[in-house]
Specification:
Largest sheet of chain B: none
CATH superfamily of chain B: MetI-like
Distance between the termini of chain A: 49 Å
CATH architecture of the largest domain in chain A: 3-Layer(aba) Sandwich
Number of strands of chain A: 20
CATH class of chain B: Mainly Alpha
Order of helices and strands of chain A: EEEHEEEHHHEHEHEEHHEEEEEEEEHEE
Structural class of chain B: mainly alpha
Strand content of chain B: under 5%
Shape of chain B: globular
CATH class of the largest domain in chain A: Alpha Beta
Helix content of chain A: 25-40%
Largest interface: A-B, 27 and 17 residues
CATH topology of chain B: MetI-like fold
Structural class of chain A: alpha+beta
Number of strands of chain B: 0
Largest sheet of chain A: 6 strands, mixed
Number of helices of chain A: 9
Strand content of chain A: 25-35%
Shape of chain A: elongated
CATH topology of the largest domain in chain A: Rossmann fold
CATH architecture of chain B: Orthogonal Bundle
Oligomer: heterodimer
CATH superfamily of the largest domain in chain A: P-loop containing nucleotide triphosphate hydrolases
Number of domains of chain B: 1
Order of helices and strands of chain B: HHHHHHHHHHHHHH
Chain lengths: 360, 267
């Protein structure tokens, strides 16, 4: 399969007065599986539709393998596009849906009938829907429909494959299955793939590279582990799941929070107001105060869910703020935690950012 | 009070109205048509003036309905697949013929194209006659039947969105192929339903046509006008005979409409 890299330079899009994309630059390497992750309204779908040629940029250019495709019509871009709500042709059988892209080719490029048939069978096998070619889309489950949509988009041997919230309309179980399967499929086909999602877990699970968008701007990009381990902003901490916000002050020794000083790798101006973000599972608890940096807390709520126990505690220092802690069932049982216990919370990892007075 | 108490009452009211205002008149038409025997009925619908009225009515349908199919498809496509300034205004404008009295519609065409109208002198100079001629009848019918197909398609295409069309586009199909292979199959029953309603109205339109036609027997008389003329001439059996023929057209379209509606729900 002749797959291509995608390069986007200076893409800006405005709908009237609202700018939905602001000077976006990015590269998707040949054969890469990239996630565009962001909350709704972040511009991620608009960007994806632009790569497909379904939407046009106000400014900027798009290249496939170095060829400028900015002004190439969607029908001539040779991209595979998968929609959130499948967009199957409901009056056509599954096999005719898959064959569509081949049948509408110009006569000189069109494969013969038997070539089309064997291609369709090959694709049905690839998406694990052998024997369902004669069905109509309405006779399939959501997961099956989305696999038909995928097979249909792969039939034209696209230069790039684009998926717009492909699992958004499916229930949790099917979604998990399909996203693992998408990874496998991507390994098999090797086609450059970009998918849009608002689900951070999905992006981190499936993609080689993740680009996080918010308000039409790229906030952070990198591998899933890089994104997860080193969020570069308060937005990233909030967006990638729960994080406790601890207000503090920068000192020469580190970050001072409620009388406890945490050693910080990053320099902050002495005396500056800062906020440290701590994920609930990156806090540990002990009954006795240790020798270093433990916040005194009172346990107010415990809520075991399967292998994880969600704990709420109240800080006993000046702020008396509520913090959330997640422990494994094992360590929770070992500590035999009860409501009302006074314990000491140790922050294992955190990220600190300058407190902005405009920040909510 | 329990809603069950109302059930027989509501059913009775529905049947009463249907009988009084629909079934009884239809029965009267039937009785009237055959009041002087089958021979008179047959003669009434086959004599030259009647034949011409039938021909003219069908001509109006054959011209009007395809044009409105074209208009309805274009308007619905433009209004549902694109977003532009004035979109809402256009949707409202399409419905004007529903609100305007057909007589007023007829008068508007007289003011525009009549001998003393805005374009009257130019038309006369070019030897074109619209008012009191077939073109006028077609224009008036076009006005009255304008909303039927477009209004049927707009909500349907709005609900379907443009995902399937966009999918077709990314798969390499151009605009026409996409329309033919993707859009048309998805809207065909809705379109046919609109065509049926449009045809029924085009056959039965009286008010607008009566203003612009001039009622020249054998020349500018459509079936509804022919019925009225016969009635005014006290040829009741003949009037009812042509009326029965029209009613049969109407019943035929309703039957097709039912079939189409069922298909639409299924498919």
């Amino acid at each position: 399969m002749n797959t291509m890299s995608i390069t986007i330079t200076g893409i800006t899009k405005d709908f009237g007065k609202t700018e939905v994309l602001k000077n976006i630059n990015l590269t998707v390497k040949e054969g890469e599986l990239l996630a565009l992750l962001g909350p709704s309204g972040s511009g991620k779908t608009t960007l994806l539709r632009m790569i497909a040629g379904l939407e046009h940029a106000s400014k900027g250019e798009i290249f496939f393998d170095g060829n400028n495709v900015t002004n190439v019509n969607a029908k001539d871009r040779n991209v595979g596009f998968v929609f959130q709500h499948y967009a199957l042709f409901s009056h056509m059988k599954v096999k005719d849906n898959i064959a569509y892209g081949l049948r509408v080719k110009k006569k000189k490029d069109r494969p013969t009938k038997s070539q089309i048939d064997s291609k369709v069978n090959e694709l049905l096998e690839l998406v694990k829907l052998e024997g369902l070619g004669e069905r109509y889309p309405s006779q399939l489950s959501g997961g099956q429909k989305q696999r038909v949509a995928l097979a249909r988009s792969l039939a034209i041997e696209p230069s790039v494959l684009l998926l717009d919230e492909p699992f958004g309309a499916l229930d949790a179980q099917v979604r998990k299955e399909l996203r693992r399967w998408l990874r496998t499929l991507h390994k098999q086909t090797g086609v450059t793939t970009v998918f849009v999602t608002h689900d951070q877990e999905e992006a981190l699970d499936v993609a080689d590279q993740v680009i996080v968008l918010n308000d039409g701007e790229i906030i952070q990009e990198g591998t899933p582990s890089h994104i997860y381990d080193s969020p570069n902003s308060p937005f990233m901490y909030r967006f990638l799941g729960n994080a406790n916000e601890l207000k503090g002050t920068a000192t020469k020794e580190g970050i001072s929070i409620g009388g406890v000083t945490l050693a910080s790798g990053e320099p902050h101006a002495d005396g500056a107001n800062v906020i440290s973000y701590v994920r609930p599972h990156e806090i540990s608890l002990a009954h006795a105060s240790g020798n270093d940096h433990h916040l005194e807390v009172e346990i107010t709520k415990t809520h075991p869910v399967g292998p994880i126990v969600f704990i709420e505690a109240k800080r006993l220092d000046g702020d008396r703020e509520r913090i959330e802690i997640e422990l494994t069932k094992g360590s929770y049982d070992n500590l035999s935690i009860k409501i009302g216990d006074i314990m000491y919370a140790r922050v294992e990892r955190f990220g600190t950012f300058q407190a902005n007075e405009y920040m909510i | 009070m329990n809603t069950k108490t109302y059930k027989p009452l509501l059913i009775f009211i529905a049947f009463l109205f249907l009988t009084l205002f629909l079934l009884l008149p239809l029965l009267i038409i039937f009785i009237g048509a055959f009041s002087q025997g089958f021979g008179v009925f047959w003669h009434s619908i086959t004599e030259p003036a009647a034949r011409h009225a039938i021909f003219l009515t069908l001509l109006v349908v054959v011209v009007t309905v395809p044009l409105h199919t074209l208009f309805g498809l274009s308007a619905a496509w433009a209004l549902t697949k694109y977003r532009f300034r004035g979109r809402q205004l256009l949707i409202t404008l399409i419905e004007i013929p529903f609100a305007v009295s057909p007589v007023i519609a007829g008068l508007v065409f007289i003011i525009l194209y009549g001998v003393n109208g805005f374009l009257g002198e130019w038309l006369l100079a070019n030897n074109l006659q619209i008012i009191f001629a077939v073109p006028g009848i077609i224009f008036a019918t076009m006005f009255v039947t304008l909303p039927f197909i477009a209004r049927e398609l707009i909500p349907l295409m709005e609900a379907q969105g443009s995902d399937a069309e966009e999918a077709s586009l990314t798969l390499g199909a151009g605009g026409f192929r996409t329309f033919y292979h993707v859009t048309l199959p998805a809207i065909k029953w809705g379109l046919l339903y609109g065509v049926i309603l449009c045809s029924a109205r085009a056959i039965g339109e009286f008010g607008a046509v009566s203003v612009v036609s001039g009622r020249i027997r054998g020349a500018t008389n459509t079936m509804p006008l022919h019925v009225e003329i016969l009635y005014n001439e006290y040829q009741f059996a003949a009037a009812f005979s042509v009326a029965l023929l029209m009613s049969l057209f109407a019943i035929f379209t309703i039957v097709i409409k039912q079939v189409v509606e069922r298909k639409q729900q299924l498919g």
